[in-house]
Design a protein that fits this description.
heterodimer; A: mainly beta; 7-stranded mixed beta sheet; B: mainly beta; 5-stranded antiparallel beta sheet; globular
Chain lengths: ~110, ~120
């Protein structure tokens, strides 16, 4: 299995809702990542988990809460989002060295209304 | 900190013409360099990577890139463009931070292929 699977593919949520994005990989990768991508922009790193521990938090607002329950799963819990948080959220995985490349999922298109 | 700069936010080529997308990197240590392609409303697909070894790297779909340390460049080329190559292309560098390496992207180049 050489894929990163993200669910859901599309999500519309109100500013008072709580929702979660899910990411799963079965490549044995021990590093997982959340990126945010606005239209016509490059992906921006949000969080890095290495060996199931949060390694990097790029000063992301607390309304985004990551969770790594095990080495194959990565969640992003969303609460009280703002319309400007609407974006494509991409999950990626790699070996911690990054030497073999990073595999990306197809993303979740999030719209906050 | 490591970074990459992509020259040209938009590049247009005719079908069958050479594709050249430029990427320069800044790094105080030997970098890991990557090219990714993104089609509309999709995730990123790895085209090729340079970590160590041979400086001319061949990737998928006929793309290749050459790591030139003296020029701090990692330009992406394809001898003959196809209509299906139209997409956004990102150059990226992998840098170390604690126990993990993070991937940092350039601003991207939109490739248009003209019939």
């Amino acid at each position: 299995d050489t894929e990163v699977t993200q669910t859901p593919k599309h999500l519309v949520m109100g500013m008072t809702n709580k929702k979660s994005l899910k990411c799963e990989q079965h490549m044995g990768h021990r590093a997982m990542y959340w990126y945010k991508q606005k239209a016509k922009k490059p992906p921006e790193l949000m969080f890095v988990y290495s060996y199931e521990k949060l390694s990097i938090n790029e000063s992301v607002p607390s309304r985004f809460s990551p969770e790594c329950p095990n080495s194959s799963l990565l969640n992003l819990h969303l609460h009280a989002l703002q319309p400007e948080d609407s974006a494509l959220y991409l999950c990626a995985s790699s070996q911690p060295t990054g030497a073999y490349g990073y595999t990306f999922g197809s993303g979740t298109r999030l719209t906050v209304v | 900190a490591q970074s990459v700069t992509q020259l040209g936010s938009h590049v247009s080529v005719s079908e069958g013409a050479l594709v050249l997308l430029r990427c320069n990197y800044s790094s105080s240590v030997p970098p890991y360099l990557f090219w990714y392609v993104q089609y509309p409303n999709q995730g990123l697909q790895l085209l090729l990577k340079y970590t160590t070894g041979a400086t001319l790297v061949k990737g998928i779909n006929g793309f290749e890139a050459e790591f030139k340390k003296s020029e701090t460049s990692f330009h992406l080329t394809k001898p003959s463009a196809h209509m299906s190559d139209a997409a956004e292309y990102f150059c990226a560098v992998s840098s170390s931070s604690g126990s993990a390496r993070q991937l940092t992207f350039g601003s991207g180049t939109q490739l248009t292929v003209l019939p």
